[in-house]
Design a protein that fits this description.
mainly beta
Length: 84
């Protein structure tokens, strides 16, 4: 696991989740919550500013998200190095 992440649908309460996989284009998280494919989301990774994304797949408690813009490489390095 790469750490904790908060997932929030627009205008909804945040859901605590675990960050499982991360790239500069998107991420995979484990969560208990009702997120559907196509939902617009805000993700907060390890204290980052909110990152806008779209849910591109959902399977059980796993969710795949595509970031609207590529993740900042400095943030990406910080997140992946702390998980190692």
């Amino acid at each position: 696991l790469l750490g904790k992440v908060t997932v929030r649908k627009h205008a909804k309460h945040p859901i605590e989740a675990s960050l499982v996989d991360l790239s500069i284009y998107g991420c995979r998280v484990l969560l208990n919550g009702s997120i559907n494919v196509g939902d617009r989301l805000w993700l907060r990774l390890a204290g980052s500013n909110p990152i806008s994304a779209t849910a591109v797949w959902a399977e059980g408690d796993r969710l795949g998200c595509k970031f609207d813009e590529m993740l900042d490489r400095t943030l990406f390095r910080a997140l992946t190095l702390q998980g190692g």
